[in-house]
Structures
1.
Amino acid sequence: MSSVGIGIVGLGGMGQLHARNVLEHGADVCAGADIVDSKRARFGEEFGARTYESYEGLLEDDAVDAVVVTTPNRFHEPIAVAALEAGLDVLVEKPLAHTLESARRIADAEAKSDGICMVGFHNRHAASTAMFDEYDDRGRFGELTHVEANYVRRRGVPGPGSWFTDPGLAGGGALLDIGVHAIDLALYTLGFPEVTEVSGITRTTFGTREEYADPDGFGDDWDAAAEPYDVDDSTSAFVRCADGSTISLEAAWATNREPCTDFVVRGTEAGASFEIGDNDLTILETGTGGCDHYADVDLSGDPSITGHLEQDKRFLEAVATGVEPQTNTIEEALTVQRVIDAIYRSSETGRAQQLADASDQEIQAQLD
């Protein structure tokens, strides 16, 4: 991978994390772009990379073979589309875009490009998921029937005034920020079956309160009166699939319950539980040997395996070899985006939503 040159657009914490992963895998961080002077200066000093104020300048750098996009959601589309039109490979952080329409345009651009686009759903590469995949491939769980997906913070609303709480920049709140991880992982676990119906409700309960208890100091400079926002801070949803499998979702930046990232998979022969992005997995079985009994098996994975590191390795391999990736594909990300869009529509209308959509079918035909 030493000949692969990576340019990173968005030089905050996520951009720096990807840059370190790129170096660990032996590729070259050759360029970075950000509108903030201090971020460019820090990034250039740490990684020895050329820096640009605009992504257009970075895309014109001949040393750049692929681009990692870690900007606010609204800017994913223009950067990813421009990179793909230039024939470059792209890794865009989750979600694919701030709206379904924007996500469709990125998918359309990839279908017409020589470049590939992967989407940053790193939790499917964590040790817990890798172990689950192995035992699922062996048939240990039988037919998978249901996933309970939780990504719940007791108090964890990003500070008002940040782009996370600006619907124009983020596109949504807790659902689009952290719920997207749980939805992707659930669909991935089930093998991305066809989704037929989605129902859900989103709530804005805490973000507009002048007195908001934030014991862990998750959000800086809390002032709801000065910086109101119109995004969701919790979501409950239910997803039906054509093969009969289902997903229940709880996602929240803030809610009056214990925090939870539990992920429970139910199968006809056995079940599994783990925390999203963790290294441990419990297989839940029963038996009749000797007497009827429960048989729970605890597995502890290699802690050096992290989702981000493994995901970036897969991306760099695709860039280096030119082989289409088999994971984190834009087709999968578009399905996730459609589910999120359906949850928001269901919440607005008070009715379950179907996912049949001619525009998506046209894009899928191009991708196929």
2.
Amino acid sequence: MADRIPAQKAPYPVQLEAGKTYAWCACGRSANQPFCDGSHSGTGLAPKVFKAEQSRTAALCGCKQSGDEPFCDGTHAKL
């Protein structure tokens, strides 16, 4: 399995829509950060698929090391 690559050392603020399904890039290789574009193919990594429970602005992890993926938990400050 390949290592996760930090896309950036900060979260991505995104507007989520209630009931919509999203695929958060867990590998860091996507050109469509913070969402998956299939660049993980062949790495042994997979995106984190989740459904937004409510419409809101959320901070999605950019460093790919969060313990609360896909959401930022501040881990990037320790890298």
3.
Amino acid sequence: MTLRLSEEQTEALRRRAEREGRSMQQVVLSAVDEYLARRADDEEVHRLGVEAVRRWKPVLDRLAE
């Protein structure tokens, strides 16, 4: 895989890696891991919400009357 960054992104990534005492690759891998975990969490919250609506719909419909 090749990751193409703008010069500004590359420089910002280089500065961030230096401040954290990590390589640019480590910073990028960490960012990818965080992104994937956040998306997985979002999907799980959505799934639980859909399930809750399905489960409690009859009760919610009665309360709305």
4.
Amino acid sequence: MATIKDIAEKVGVTVTSVSRVLNNRGYISEMLKKKVHEAMEELNYQPNEVARSLIRKKSNIIGLIIPDVSHPFFGEVTYYIEYYADKNGYKLLLCNSKLNKLKEKEYINMLKGSQVDGIIMGSHTMDTKDYTSIKLPMVTLDRQITDTIPYISSDNYKGGELATNLLIKKGCKKIAHISGNLHLNLLAKLRHDAFKKVILNKGIEHIVLQTDLNGFNYDEYEQLVSAMFQEHPDIDGVFASSDIIAAQVLKECYRIGKSVPQDVKIVGYDGIQLGQLITPGITTIKQPTKDIGKMAVSLIIEQIEGEDVPKENILPVKLIERQST
């Protein structure tokens, strides 16, 4: 395996000069850069990133832990986090926790061992003390863990208001809200809080259903929605906590012969691309995934550089009305 010394001998310069090129420090002529990179390619030299990070005390790697990369919302957020990390000279180390507490702990230990400069947490299964003991710059997504760890969230309460008011405005008389599990300490619960306040103030008949604690189970969604219409066949409006669940409601309406939006009106949440690709298109509360990704990277880098950052970061949502209402 080639070493820096081999590169230096090949180019005819000192090891220090090659090191300056690799670390992009000090004055380096374009000619020297070209010769070093050509020699690296010819000798198939692979820098030892862990060793370099120990020397520089900076790896330019950000860790990202999310619950499920296959979920379209988290897939979109991950895309933008990687995009803005790369634009700022950072690489991303992606971890898929599947909402497994042990797996999340193992990933955190791995990220610390890999000398990452900071961690963006989109999965939150552990106790508060487990997060505060990490001792790295951190940003959390959609959960306020402590007063000291910055978090980013869309305006969940406003989203719940927009969705519920739209269904009432469209004439719905009995509205179902299919929420995420309300036992989890997530800011997404504010969607449910807004739904309850609006629905009770307007005196509208309603039901609330919760998904399971254990992640994003599409088979469970199918069973939940099927049972909902069996037990409450007079439901004429549904506010789903994700576009994936809204799509399942749409599928079940088709199966049992209910027309959308004539018989049942549906509002989803997230604003993923799926919602506009199916027919009828799903009305949704769009979360600003691009802005979430950009802000997550910005807050991490500012902390890495020793700057103070705001702890609460709430981004606006937008109602996108399509054919399902």
